[in-house]
Structure prediction request, 465 residues.
Amino acid sequence: MTALAHLALFGWIPLVLVAFLFLQPRVAVIAALAAGSLLLPVLSIPVPGPLDFGKPEVICAAVLIGIICFDPRRLLEYWPDAIDVFWFTWIAAGALSSLSNDLGGYDAFCVLLSRLLLWGVPYLVGVLYLGTRAGLCSMLWVLFLSGLAYVPLCLFEVRMSPQLHYMVYGMAQHAFDQTIRGGGYRPMVFMAHGLELSLWMGAATVAGYALWRTSATGRVQGFRLGPLVALVGVTLVLCKSTGAIFLTGLGLLLLSPLALPWLRLAVLLGMFAYLLLRMFGDGALENLLFEVSSLVSEERAGSLKFRFDNEAILLDRAWQRPWLGAGGWNFGSLSDPETGEPIPVTTDSYWIIAMATSGFLGCVGLVGGFWSSVFRFEVSVLRERLQPLVELTAASVITLMILADSLVNAFIPPLYVAIAVGLTRAASGDGPVVAPLRVPFLRPRSAAGGLQPRVPSGRPWRADG
Prediction:
């Protein structure tokens, strides 16, 4: 490990504060969440106190300090919504689980503080900055441009193998054998795993497609937007993650003008049915998915079976304490009842982690936070029988992708939480869209060459806030 890894973590907070000096607070916040996820090392430094000093902690702490120092008046605009009870439940469930498992008040305090930082700060960002059409438009631009900036780094690792994290920070963030896919390599760059990177590139592709749809000329600052979106999409395919490619294809389909709101709602309800069958279906769904995946690839089917087998062990453990789970310290500490030997367990899905550590209470809070934001938006669209704005629909589709991925993987960067919460607020907003939006951090151009978004007819969502 090089000194640069420590310098990057400890220097990130002042760097974000400098960004607040030159950018609008909304853009600075979103850019800090995105850039931190893409650039900081996958590293956690033990320090005295209740929290370790790691990548997600630094990202969220920098944003919180920036808001307090440069945009404190925005904090006074905060007002909770009834639907926020899911996020509050998830944040509190960890501490309640610690207390119920006799892990002590200090452990409960540490878990609560950690979730307040890692989940509460992105939640606050979503409420304060992404709860409007302008906020979600800024999010789409940052997400798309971050994916575009990652293209050359991904292509380098596709050709040369995942080496950038080691070359820059002096350490490999994950086992190298998991990067070998399809006779080539699956890039990781500065993320924890190739699966996390692939989902990010997929979300960037969907964001770019949404921006292309809102552009009247198909150009931004003289560049054609379509080929750039296609470039990000091709890079996603080269990342060799079947799940992310499938979710991105589904996302583009759900975002297309031909897609009806009930179709997105049907996909959302299908995810709810998936969870119920995983919990109470006695393995029937797992067997079906294994057979289907075998038709695609024996390697992918074997990987899926490995996940399901490990999750079955954890689910059995969760049923021993169904309401509040086993707590963080006891999570995964399984042993054979006859020999007493430890049973190795690999965790991949965030929902099973939430279930095992925080029980039904935590699982409902985590999954419900993402699920309810999409549900509120899509139901409001069906009720009004109007065409929604593309920016809001894109946020709904990206949240659907994140939720679907959390059912099989465990990568939820802070920006994803902010998107889901922002969609919740935007879906309950009032007031007309009074003016077309400009790219939030680029100089405006003439009508012939600049971005001239169409203002789709639809429910009069709030223009800004």
Summary: The chain has one domain: 3-274+349-426.
